[in-house]
Amino acid sequence: EVQLVESGGGLVQAGGSLRLSCAASGFTFDGYAKCWVRQAPGKKREKVSCISAGGTSYADSVKGRFTISTDNAKNMDNAKNMVYLQMNSLKPEDTAVYYCAAGPYSDLMDYWGQGTQVTVFS
């Protein structure tokens, strides 16, 4: 069973930082693109950042502030495959539910987590 479980969201003042984590299991981690996608109330879903064998990509709105990374469990006991999103210099417009997603390509996400709320106040 594929599972993507996000954590790390919360309430933070503008200019602050948060680190989102996503524990991934049930699929070939290295073979999939992993992305963070966000959706704010009343707005369209926005792909924030993706990481794959081809490298990383970022939405223009977060370039220079957000960093995506992964930690491959490499079959170690009790280890999890992880996807992270380090978010610095947060702005109120970054407020959204952030979803971890995975798929064969960054434009094709097959699996989604339940989301974690990020709220940035000024």
Write up what this structure looks like.
With 122 residues, the chain is mainly β. It is built from no helices and eleven strands. The strands form two sheets. Strands 2, 4, 5, 6, 9, 10 and 11 form a seven-stranded mixed beta sheet that branches. The protein has a four-stranded antiparallel beta sheet with strand order 1-3-8-7, with no helix packed on it. A hairpin with a 7-residue loop joins strand 9 and strand 10 (111-112). The protein is globular and about 40 Å long.
**Residue ranges: pLDDT <50 for 5 or more in a row?**
none
What would you call the shape? globular
* Distance, first to last CA: 40 Å
Oligomer kind: single chain
Largest sheet: 7 strands, mixed
Task: Provide key terms for this protein.
122 residues; mainly beta; seven-stranded mixed beta sheet
Mind sketching the topology for me?
Layout (H helix, E strand, L loop, with lengths): L2 E5 L2 E4 L4 E8 L7 E7 L6 E7 L2 E4 L7 E6 L9 E7 L8 E8 L7 E2 L3 E6 L1
Parallel strand pairs: 2-11
Antiparallel strand pairs: 1-3, 3-8, 4-5, 4-9, 5-6, 7-8, 9-10, 9-11
Write a compact overview of the structure shown.
The protein is mostly beta strands and 122 residues long. It contains no helices and 11 strands.
